Amino acid sequence: MTSRRSMLCGLAVAMVVPGGLAACSTTTTNPSTGGGTTGAGNTGGSTPGNAGAAGLAALADVPDGGGLIVESGGKPLVLTRTGDVVKAFGAACPHAGTTVSPPKGGIITCPNHGSQFGASDGSLKKGPSTKGLTEVPVKVSGDQVVMA
Ligand code: FES
């Protein structure tokens, strides 16, 4: 009696996040499936934003001539891109720790007090910061920007 329903629920669960599992709990045949194995190998379509543990961003999401703020290990990084060259710098401003803005026109600007840094090397262009941004090694792997 529930076979058609269970098939539909199973299909729906497969297409939706694991949180949808509760709606189909009347047909529990395998209680050991926890649904905690998502993440590493999504093949059903594009996965915007953060990829797995090592992926910082899709290369296509990093504007050429600009950049993007991402997070790695709980710390903000600013990604910069010029053609095929992607670099990353710690995005916490050395002055007082504010997360800098993505680069524009080759310059990374801190929105708090206006310090500016070069997008190609993180060097200090304008204070009040007295130091540049620290580069973090990244590389392009396939269509993803990952930690090097
Ligand atoms: S916190 Fe960035 S310039 Fe002050």
Automatic annotation (TrEMBL):
Superkingdom to which the source organism belongs: Bacteria
Extent of the signal sequence: 1-22
CDD domains assigned to the protein according to its UniProt record, in alphabetical order: Rieske
GO molecular-function terms, A-Z: 2 iron, 2 sulfur cluster binding; metal ion binding; monooxygenase activity; oxidoreductase activity, acting on paired donors, with incorporation or reduction of molecular oxygen
Biased composition (Gly residues): 33-47
Keyword annotations of the record: 2Fe-2S, Iron, Iron-sulfur, Metal-binding, Signal
Entries under Pfam families matching the protein: Rieske (PF00355)
Start and end residues of each stretch annotated as Disordered: 28-51
Domain Rieske: 54-147
Protein name per its UniProtKB record: Rieske (2Fe-2S) protein
Naturally occurring in which organism (per UniProt): Umezawaea endophytica
